[in-house]
């Protein structure tokens, strides 16, 4: 074997080894990211999940708003990426407990009975004004002592929560997407899809409640979303009791 042939053979072998090592490294990193994603979402390979669909309160017949349909598609893609399965159930037909399967619950308390139950059980510090009558507080969130009003198409809010049942390590999480309008539900699901790695690094397997603001949805749709803050403590604590009105006594 001449030196030229030997160099060619060694070059081919080196290229093959480098390509193999690169493929193994990429596969390892991809699998590690997938395992972290599955752990955060509670969706191991072949697991079952529940997607709770709300109803459009503005429709006379049972229907789902188109932005909520888009939100469901975002969530279905996340589940598929994890190699898990999803069962779609309407908000009034769930009929099961919490923590057995990962749950994605879409829609505010005005359109989703399941959301009402979750908020009563796990988010005692949150109130949503579901009064159908027009007024400045219609659709407003109260979280602890703070109030967040809806300005349709301009400034809208949505809660994105990851909640687990007590201290059970095996319990699967429930993800809540509780928005003031349907487009904010889609904004929250898209936020989760885009930022799940960052959220997993920050929160791990712990529960959290984030308040998001959807900016100028009439122009930008569900794409421009700002994180207002982590409101976990206020949302999971009972609402503060209003102080009694003080009365001054005067002696004649």
Automatic annotation (TrEMBL):
Protein source organism: Streptomyces anthocyanicus
Keywords in alphabetical order: Membrane, Transmembrane, Transmembrane helix
Transmembrane segments: 6-29
Source taxon at top rank: Bacteria
Protein name per Swiss-Prot or TrEMBL: Secreted protein
Claim: Membrane is one of the keywords in the record: yes
């Amino acid at each position: 074997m001449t030196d030229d042939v030997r160099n060619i053979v060694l070059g081919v072998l080196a290229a093959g080894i480098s390509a193999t090592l690169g493929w193994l490294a990429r596969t390892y990193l991809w699998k590690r990211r997938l395992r972290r994603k599955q752990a955060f979402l509670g969706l191991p390979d072949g697991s079952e999940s529940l997607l709770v669909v709300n109803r459009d309160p503005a429709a006379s017949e049972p229907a789902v708003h188109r932005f909520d349909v888009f939100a469901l598609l975002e969530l279905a893609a996340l589940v598929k990426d994890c190699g898990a399965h999803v069962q779609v159930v309407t908000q009034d037909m769930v009929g099961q407990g919490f923590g057995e399967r990962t749950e994605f619950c879409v829609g505010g308390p005005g359109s989703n009975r399941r959301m009402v139950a979750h908020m009563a059980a796990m988010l005692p510090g949150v109130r949503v004004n579901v009064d159908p009558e027009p007024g400045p507080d219609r659709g407003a969130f109260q979280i602890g002592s703070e109030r967040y009003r809806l300005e349709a198409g301009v400034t809208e809010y949505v809660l994105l929560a990851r909640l687990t049942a007590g201290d059970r390590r095996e319990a699967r999480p429930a993800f809540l997407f509780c928005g003031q309008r349907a487009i904010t539900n889609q904004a929250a699901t898209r936020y989760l899809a885009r930022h799940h790695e960052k959220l997993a690094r920050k929160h791990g397997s712990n529960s959290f409640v984030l308040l998001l603001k959807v900016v100028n949805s009439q122009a930008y749709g569900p794409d421009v979303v700002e994180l207002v803050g982590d409101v976990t403590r206020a949302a999971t604590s009972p609402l503060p009791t209003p102080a009694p009105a003080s009365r001054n006594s005067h002696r004649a």
